[in-house]
Write a structure and sequence with these properties.
It comes from Pukyongia salina. By secondary structure, the protein is of the alpha/beta class. The protein has two domains: about 20-265, Alpha-Beta Barrel (TIM Barrel); about 270-385, Beta Barrel (Lyase, Ornithine Decarboxylase, Chain A, domain 1). It has twelve helices and 18 strands. Strands 1, 11, 12, 13, 14, 15, 16, 17 and 18 form a nine-stranded mixed beta sheet that branches. It has an eight-stranded parallel barrel with strand order 2-3-4-5-6-8-9-10, surrounded by five helices. Helix 2 packs parallel to helix 3, helix 2 (about 20-35) crosses helix 9 (about 230-250) and helix 8 packs parallel to helix 9 (about 230-250). It starts with a helix and ends in an 8-residue tail after the last helix. The relative contact order is 0.16. It binds pyridoxal-5'-phosphate. Pyridoxal-5'-phosphate binds near residues 70, 91, 218 and 260.
């Protein structure tokens, strides 16, 4: 989408809003597929938590993606999108046994990440195929909040507990049909990922009836031109080669699975907000938009540096700005950022706003959550309306005093 198209969307629907471009999602999906043409069976499960709008799920499913879910509600959203249970994998952490049993009864692939649940589940449902989430203890993440493979991480069953896993499997007679890892976001070093994969292959040798190995996700996407990103093509070639070798020694063709969120939708999304005021202080120039961390929390939560462009004045002379919102709490989007000259009323575009942006939005300060627009084949479609005052009060029970 070009700046004119983005502006036309704001003009039509008002702001602030999220716009997602299906062409970008498709290009990313194809890229991943092509990187792994070397393996016979590839399965891509889209991580629903990144962007869970039903129309987005439907679109990605139309490309061939299954869904990776982390809650029973995400499972329901995927079903609502018309995706068959057998194309959904459920990878919860710290949820109740009841929720896992509920998901299993729907028929989705269960992925278990702790010994206690593994034992309970295997004892009660030995016939239900289960995938095991392994923690290989390899650090592959960027921000400490999003790297989940380290020793203190709450995710996965430690690779050092493999003997215990095997004992549970033998005692219960349960069927382990998949081995999984997800070491966190922002993999830069392919060698580190391949090293973690070796640990997974070693673990896989201990299970006779596997159908798939799931390598999770963590593909790093660029946040601006020239930014480093995971070299998916090189990664695909190397891992495919190693995977085929493994399948040969294992004696069976397994499915290679991934569950990318960011990689598929991050760059497809832009968040558009209007500049309410330009405020010169003694130290900087603030551009304050009609939004805040209620709509886009990643800069405050993870220190994410979303590229910001002034689509109302793209050719303006660049100046330095601190971009903040209207929340009554610090809500800095960017400090000391070079942006084409900003005037009050201009529309700013926050890039890489497809993943973990709308899904993390809230009503803090009693503001409405924005609308979501899908840009498909040169046309805009509302896929979620902006909230209204009714949405803020509909669940409240009001007492009289
Ligand atoms: C969040 C998550 C993903 C997606 O991670 P991205 O960095 O968005 O690709 C994949 N698998 C699991 C289990 C997750 O929790």
């Amino acid at each position: 989408m070009n700046d004119q198209e983005l502006l036309s969307v704001v003009q039509e629907y008002g702001g602030p809003l999220y716009v997602y471009d299906t062409a970008v999602m498709q290009a990313q999906y194809k890229r991943l597929q092509q990187a792994f043409t070397g393996v016979n069976k590839l399965r891509v499960h889209y991580a629903v938590k990144a962007l869970s709008n039903i129309s987005v799920l439907k679109y990605l499913h139309s490309l061939g993606a299954g869904m990776d879910t982390v809650s029973i509600q995400e499972v329901r959203l995927a079903l609502e999108a018309g995706i068959p249970a057998e194309e959904i994998i459920y990878t919860p952490n710290g949820v109740s046994m009841e929720e896992i049993e509920k998901a299993a009864s729907i028929g989705v692939q269960i992925n278990i990440d702790n010994l206690s649940v593994l034992e309970q589940f295997g004892t009660k449902h030995p016939k239900t195929p289960v995938c095991i989430r392994i923690n290989p203890h390899v650090m592959a993440g960027g921000n400490t909040n999003i790297s989940v493979g380290h020793i203190d991480s709450k995710f996965g069953i430690s690779i050092h507990q493999l003997p215990h896993i095997k004992r549970i499997v033998e005692n219960t007679g349960m069927w382990i049909n998949g081995i999984h890892m997800h070491t966190g976001s922002d993999i830069l070093d392919i060698e580190v990922f391949l090293y973690a994969s070796e640990i997974l292959f070693k673990a896989a040798e201990h299970f006779e009836d596997l159908e798939f190995i799931d390598f999770g996700s963590g593909f790093k996407v660029p946040y601006r031109e020239g930014d480093i990103e995971t070299n998916v093509e090189e990664f695909g070639e190397k891992l495919s080669h190693r995977f085929n070798e493994f399948c040969q020694s294992y004696g069976r063709d397994l499915t290679l699975a991934f569950e990318p969120g960011k990689f598929l939708v991050s760059q497809a999304g832009k968040f558009l907000a209007k500049v309410n005021v330009v405020k010169q202080t003694t130290s900087t120039v603030f551009a304050q938009v009609d939004s805040g961390f209620n709509h886009l929390i990643r800069p405050m939560l993870y220190g994410s540096q979303h590229y910001i462009s002034n689509i109302s004045n793209p050719d303006g002379r660049e100046r330095f700005y601190s971009v903040t919102g209207y929340i009554c709490e610090t809500d800095t989007f960017a400090n000391n950022r070079r942006i084409a000259e900003i005037r009050e009323g201009d529309i700013l575009a926050f890039h890489n706003a497809g993943a973990y942006c709308f899904t993390m939005a809230s009503n803090y300060n009693s503001r409405y959550r924005p609308a979501e627009i899908l840009w498909h084949k040169g046309k805009s479609h509302v896929i979620r309306e902006r909230e209204t005052f009714d949405d803020l009060i509909v669940k409240q029970k009001v007492l009289e005093f």
